[in-house]
Structures are given as C-alpha cells and as structure tokens.
Amino acid sequence: MQATIPNSPYTLSARPLTLADLPRFAEHAVRHGQESGADGDVIFMPYSAADLPTYERIVQHRAATWPRLLTQPAWVRTWALHEGDRIVGHVDLTGGGLPAALHRCTLGMGLERSCRHAGWGGLLLDTASEWARRQPSLIWLDLGVFAHNTPARALYHSRGFAEVGRLQDCFRVDGTVVDDIQMTLRLRD
Fold first, then answer.
1. CB proximity list for 135: less than 8 A, separation 6 or greater
2. Where are the beta strands (DSSP E) in 102-188?
3. Is the pLDDT of residue 72 over 90?
C-alpha cells in the first residue's frame, strides 16, 4: 500500500524502513539537515552548521535502533516519502529511553524543501500516528517543535496535538536563540 497525491512525483510507503533502506535514508537525512536555516529556510534542527549529523552517525544510530523491539528502550521506526528511488522525506517514532517510559513515543519528521507545502507532512504524520494507535503498548505520542516554525505547529495542531509546555532559550543554533514547544497527543484512554 502506498499513499499518493494526484499530480505529484512522490509516493509514501506504508511500511517502516528496513536496514536495506539505510543508505538512501542517510543520504536524505544529510540533505535535509543541510537545509535547516539555509537559503531563507527556518531553523528546524538543533544543530549548528558545523555539528550536523554525518552520514556515518546516522547509519550507526539507525542500524542500532531500527531492529529494536517495542519492548526495548529507544526503539525507532521510520517511514519515508520517495521520489523514485530517492528518499525526500521521513517521519520517525522513537520509544521511551527507559522501560518505565515505553508507553510513550516521540515523533520527529523532516521533508526536503522540494516536497513541502503539498500535503505530504500531513500524510507522513497520519501514517506514523495510525501505526502508533495500532500498538497496544503505546498511549502517548509526543514531539518538540521550534516556536518559530509556524507551518509545523499548525500541522500538529490540526492533527490534535496539544501544547503542554514551552522551553525558552532551549537551543542556540549558530547564534539564534530557539524556544522549543512540547506537544502531545493521547492515542487511547
């Protein structure tokens, strides 16, 4: 099963990525990270230009976390938006870092500039949220979003996420002070 938007060159796979997808995912993650704060883009990652995750770090992290079971702390599941064989967007869910927090997961998402503002962010978010709702162990879906990233905040609000906190001066990225907003969505009672 794949999601599509009419007249778009992109497709969204309904399956989480596997280790076989790792090289293409890491290439996307590096490209996407380089767009944060560049060429008029908002800062959307908590890394300075000199500290962006490298291809090697991304591969090492995902190779360790994608195979983890949902009963293991810090598991990760990732879905991707594809343009042909190239990955151009993704959404991640990451399980709690401690056994006592495995009823929660954290959402992270990124779209390369070429495929933003066309509805793909909503489809990525819906794909991950629907998967999370089918997991009996998950009760909460959390995320952090930079206060100045109004398009992302609007998307999360439209899908039922509620703001539960704000950390002023949470990050300093290449001299820019960034406030972080914590949001959450209850998946079930």
1. 70
2. 104-111, 140-146, 162-173, 176-186
3. yes
Identify the pLDDT of residue 1.
Answer: 46
pLDDT at 129 over 50: yes
Structural domain boundaries in the chain: 2-186
**CA-based nearest residue to 128, from 82, 153, 94, 163:** 94
Q: Are 45 and 29 contacting, i.e. CB atoms less than 8 angstroms apart?
A: no
Q: What angle do CA 140, 70, 22 make, to 5 degrees?
A: 105
Decide: helix, strand or coil at residue 66. Answer: coil
pTM above 0.85, yes or no: yes
* Per CATH, domain 2-186 is 3.40.630.30: yes
Tens of pLDDT, residue by residue over 13-29, are 768 999 999 999 999 99
Per-residue pLDDT for 90 more than 60?
yes
Q: Quote the CA–CA distance of 152 and 170 in Å, as a whole number.
A: 18
At 159, the amino acid letter reads R
* H or E segment and range at residue 26: helix 22-35
Crossing angle of helices 55-65 and 22-35, in 10° steps, is 130
Closest CA to 20 of 84, 55, 63, 72: 63
CA pair distance 26, 165, nearest whole angstrom: 31
pLDDT tens string 113-126: 887 877 888 989 99
Read off the amino acid at residue 60. Answer: Q
